[in-house]
Amino acid sequence: MDHPQTTRTVSGAHYAFVFSISLLLWVLLSGSLAWEEVALGAFVSLMITLLFGPRFTIYNGIKFSFMAPLYVLLYLVHFFRELIKANFELAMRVLTPSLPIRPEMVEIKTTLESPLGRMLLANSITLTPGTLSVDVTGDTILVHWVYCPPGTDAKMATDAIAASFERHIKRFLV
Amino acid sequence: MNIIGDIFLVIGALFIAVGGLGLLRMPDVYNRIHAGTKAVTLGSLSVLLGIALLHPTWWPKLLVIAGFLLFTNPVAASIIARAAKISGIKPWRTEEQGGE
Q1: Residue A94 and residue B21: Cβ atoms within 8 Å?
Q2: Which pairs count as long-range contacts for A97-100, CB under 8 Å and 24+ apart, including other chains?
Q3: What's the CA gap between A14 and B72, in Å, rounded?
Q4: Which of A98, A136, B18, B87 has its CA 20 to 30 A from that of A69?
């Protein structure tokens, strides 16, 4: 996998993001909002941010904006709807005696550029109806599709599998 | 609250059972990964939700567990599928597609 963004300079928003994620994780794991706990968490998070912040280039693709949290939420709603749909579809296929599957490997193209965006897209594909990401090479994701309609080409596969997720992810990642 | 929590636990267990049945019924490794990933991910989330309803004070930790599951489960599935592909396992195909 290529990492196109490893040389990009990191911004203040990037540091703020690393700090808040570390602190949030601390508070959730400690499960207490007592000021001693939070103060110690803030200190540790600050240390982590200062020491490792410049190296957390995985977060580089994030587009910081006031709307970003809303877009993440919209993505999550879409994602959970697809996840539940995927499970009922899978349960239907497994429980049908004739096992209606027609598996095929298809290649789809993504226009996302950041490693995090591609990872999120590949993860989303894996957890949604009938598709499993097998490999990511550059902008191509190899997908194993449980029920591939006859005569499908790469364009149709991209539209059917990735397009809706890509639209959501693109609003908060490069 | 307790009853709703129990219902989510049962739903989670059912999805995991379907996932297990899928592992037995599917013809090859790739299709089995499908069954083993999706059903088990949603099943685990449902179980976690059930526990959160039964023990409301645990929810922050359960949320963290859910987040880690959502990030790591599909990665693990992809890596297993990738390893299968690199070791040369051909995807199973139906007779109509020219398979066995």
Answers
A1: yes
A2: A99/B25, A99/B26, A99/B27, A100/A147
A3: 23
A4: A136
SS3 B94: coil
Mean pLDDT of chain A: 81
Q: Does B63 touch chain A (CB under 8 A)?
A: yes
Q: What average pLDDT does this structure show over A154-163?
A: 75
Under an 8 A CB cutoff, do B85 and A104 touch?
Answer: no
Beta-carbon-side half-sphere exposure of residue B99 (alpha carbons within 13 Å): 14
With b meaning 16 or more CB within 10 Å and e meaning fewer, what string describes A34-57?
eeeeeeebbeebeebbeeebeebb
Q: For chain B, which residues make up each domain, given as ranges?
A: 2-97
Q: Which of B42, B58, B65 to mutate to test the interface with A (most CBs of A within 10 A)?
A: B42
pLDDT under 70 in chain B at which residues?
Answer: 95-100
Any A CB within 8 A of B25 CB: yes
